[in-house]
Every structure is written in C-alpha cells, then in structure tokens.
Amino acid sequence: MSASVSLVTGASSGLGLMLAKVLARRGTKLVMAATTADKLQAAADEVRKLGGEVLPIVTNVTDDASVANLVAQTLDKFGRLDAVFHGAGRSTRQAILDTTPADFRELIELNFLGTVRVARATVPELLKTRGSLVLVGSLAGKVGARFYGAYPASKFCVSAYAQQLRLELGDQGLHVLLVCPGPIRRAETGPRYESTAGNIPAEALQPGGGAKTSRLDPEWLCEQMLRACQRRSPELVLPGKARWMFAIGQLWPRLGDWLLKKLT
User: Per-residue pLDDT for 131 more than 70?
Assistant: First the structure.
C-alpha cells in the first residue's frame, strides 16, 4: 500500500484494529477512529508498538460535527489524506417481522448514513491525492439472508452508494473499493446477538448467520484489501465463489433463494 496517511474507522477492535496493525507494519501514518475513548487508546497503544505514527481520535460517525472534527484533526496533524478505510458499523440478528421501523432507522443511520458522512468529509481530500476510499460492506449487502433484521438493507445501501461514487468521481481520480467479506474469524466464538434475536434458530446467532463457509482470517483479509487498493479494483468479494450465487440470484431468483437457504 503506497498511501502515506491512512484513516481507519471502527479501529478499536475487530477488522479495523487488524487493518491498523497491518498498515502500521508497512510504515503508514495512521489515524484511528472509534467511539469509545478507553478502547481506542488501548488499541492505539497496541498499534504504536509496531512502529509508525498513530493519532487516535474519538469519533461518532452518526454525528456530522464529530466526523468534521475527525478530518480537521487529521489534516492539522498530517496535512494530507491518502486512504480511508471505513469499517465502523455493526450487524444484527432478528426475524424480519420483529424488525421495527425504529430498528431499520438505527442501523441505517450507523451503517449507511455514517458511510455517507465519512465519504462527504474525506473525498475532497482523497481527490487531491488520487487516493482510495475503502468501504467495508458485506455479503449481506448483495443478498438478503434470513434472520439478519435490518442489516442487509443497511449494507445494500452501502453497495449502491459505492457504485455511485465510482461512476461519478472515478474519472476525477478517486478510487473506491467496496469490500464484501463473508464471516470473519474472531477470538470470541460464542453467540453475540441474544439481546435482540428473539425467536430465531440458534445457528443464525453464529458468525455469518450460520453460513456454510470457512471463516476468513482477518489478517489475510486485510492483505487482500491492500492488494485490491494497489490494483485500484472496484470490488473485493470473499469468498470469491459467492459471486456465482449473486449472479444466479439475479438471473433466476427462485434458484438463488434456494441456494441461499441451503448455504446459510
């Protein structure tokens, strides 16, 4: 990755933290953004041990002023921005008829409108450097799997938005990469969604909603993302075989639904 200054949102844990570590090992100057101050500071201290310069900034992507402050502090410290990796967001598990308009509104505010805020605040700087905007979507942003509640709708929005950005701003030098990963391996393996899940199958509470696929190694996934940035690819879908399911579902919806039920 050739970028000298990179911004990572959702950087205090999970994929965001791993991405910050991978970038730090490459000598990238880093801005790490997350909502919880103590977790963010601990993550930043961990990343600093790998070398490089790290600026942690507490940020709430659902707040315009907070995102504006993030960019202002980044430019004040480093003077430029070469890459943005936007991974802040969360997943849910719920039966679709148990998912209320308020549930949809909350997740769209975080997963989609948070993406819009970050893009609007950072793209003017990325255009100056012909930089990369990397948006972490999901396989659920391509297919509406069962028992995910409002999550697929929020991520479908991200997929559409990424394409719009590519089409309107690609010729001006902006690189937009939409990353659609399957379930990612994590240290804690137990269910995470009991508080909102209600009456849904136990398998749906597992990572990937019980998808019958291997968990992606987070460090390997980060390396694939950086490789895709170097190639200025428009999308990264992992596992790659999921593309066939997307294509089948578009051409033959009934067959696509059957496959999705078999594989999740």
Answer: yes
Overall average pLDDT of the 156-177 stretch: 98
Residue 251 — φ and ψ, nearest 5°? -80, -40
pLDDT over threshold 50, residue 1 = no
Residues marked active site are found at 151
**What three-state secondary structure class fits 97?**
helix
pTM confidence score: 0.92
Query: Could you count the other beta carbons within 10 Å of the beta carbon of residue 41?
Result: 15
Distances (CA, A) of 94 to 98, 105, 151, 170, 226: 6, 15, 9, 37, 33
Question: CA dist 156 to 136, 196, 200, Å?
Answer: 12, 21, 22
145 residue type, one letter: A
- DSSP alpha helices (H): ranges in the chain? 14-25, 37-48, 64-78, 101-107, 114-129, 151-169, 194-197, 218-231, 242-251, 253-263
pLDDT in tens, 30-89: 999 999 999 999 999 999 999 879 999 999 999 999 999 999 999 999 999 999 999 999
Spatial separation of the C-alpha atoms in residues 213 and 43, rounded to whole Å: 29
- SS3 label, residue 179: strand
Contact call for residues 87 and 130 (beta carbons, < 8 A): no
Q: What is the distance between the alpha carbons of residues 4 and 24, in angstroms, rounded to a whole number?
A: 10
Q: How many angstroms separate the CA atoms of 126 and 7, rounded? A: 11
Residue with tokens 């802040």: 88
Of 22, 38, 120, the C-alpha closest to 71 is 120
